[in-house]
Design brief:
By secondary structure, the protein is an alpha+beta fold. The chain has nine helices and twelve strands. The strands form four sheets. The protein has a four-stranded mixed β-sheet. A hairpin with a 2-residue loop joins strand 10 and strand 11. Helix 2 runs antiparallel to helix 3 and helix 5 packs antiparallel against helix 6. It starts with a strand and ends in an 18-residue tail after the last helix.
């Protein structure tokens, strides 16, 4: 079975003119148009990195030429490969299908992919909640967690540690929802996470956290947790494609691996341009980059910073 964990540091990426024009040439036209509609350069960079991560994965791991990759979105926004080519192994059998998922929030874009199972990934940056206090922020978010989860979050210590526990729980919930493709209509109180006793680190991936669904422990699902840096939590949800395959899913999983940090050169190493050069895309991006940047990582609505 195959497993992929890739990350790209969008926050420090300052694309040159040639890089941004190349990136725009290497994605589908509708993707380019969608990215061009973002108001902020930060959001445009994150979305671009996500598309390049996904195309690199499909090209290099699924063996589909860059120019033949056709990506579409489900009604709930989850990317999928339209009409994938049938690839056969040396034995003549069709290998297990890949599942993949993207997330970008804070300073990173991440991709997780797994062969033979469902996968969802979510990244959250540990930031103060904008203009509201931490207690007020938690009050607004009360309905998103169970009483047990709130007890864990609020007993974490300082406000910074409480926020870290909050975002850790949120990333776990989002990773599961993204894996099953349910979307915003899912009642988050149906899932309750019992965290691994170990602290998250940047060098070690934890798989001990357990999920309870409708008050029953789900043994079919595995959750990987780690830190990309001191402020970014990342969670990966791994589940079988169906109940009948659950007994085979766990033994076949490869050992947990950390996210590999890729460069822009890595993202475009296998790329081939799909469209003609368009200098106007750089002019548009420069205007976004020069515009006053608001702090978009925190706000006071009933949702925490949204990772995509």
């Amino acid at each position: 079975m195959g497993s992929v964990r890739w990350a790209f540091l969008c926050g420090s990426w300052r694309p040159s003119r040639s890089e941004w024009i190349l990136a725009n040439r290497c994605i589908q036209r509708e993707e380019r148009d969608r990215i061009g509609q973002f108001v902020f350069a930060k959001d445009a960079k994150s979305a671009m990195a996500g598309r390049l991560l996904l195309r690199r994965f499909v090209c290099e791991r699924m063996g589909i030429p860059w120019s033949e990759i056709r990506l579409e979105r489900s009604p709930r926004g989850k990317p999928y490969l339209a009409a994938p080519l049938k690839v056969r192994s040396d034995s003549g059998t069709e290998p297990p299908s890949w599942s993949f998922n993207l997330s970008h929030q804070g300073d990173y874009a991440v991709l997780a992919a797994e062969q033979g199972g469902q996968v969802g990934v979510d990244i959250m940056k540990n930031t103060m909640p904008g203009t509201s206090s931490v207690p007020e922020f938690f009050r607004i978010m009360t309905r998103q967690f169970t009483a047990y989860e709130w007890s864990v979050i609020q007993s974490a210590g300082s406000e910074h540690l409480q926020l870290a526990a909050f975002y850790r729980h949120w990333a776990l919930k989002e990773s599961f929802i993204k894996a099953i493709g349910t979307g915003l209509g899912f009642n988050l109180q149906r899932v309750e996470f019992h965290l691994a006793p170990e602290h998250l680190t940047q060098k070690h991936v934890l798989r001990q956290t357990k999920m309870h669904l409708d008050e029953e422990e789900e043994e079919d699902w595995i959750f990987e947790e780690s830190l990309l840096d001191a402020d970014h939590h990342v969670a990966v949800a791994l589940g079988p494609t169906d109940k009948t395959g659950s007994e085979l899913f766990r033994p076949s999983l490869p050992p947990a691996s950390s996210f590999a940090l890729l460069s822009f050169s890595d993202l475009t190493a296998s790329a081939s341009p799909l469209t003609e050069e368009d200098p106007a895309c750089w002019d548009s991006f420069e205007m976004k980059a020069e515009a006053p940047q608001r702090q978009r990582d925190t706000h006071t609505s009933e949702q925490p910073p949204v990772s995509r």
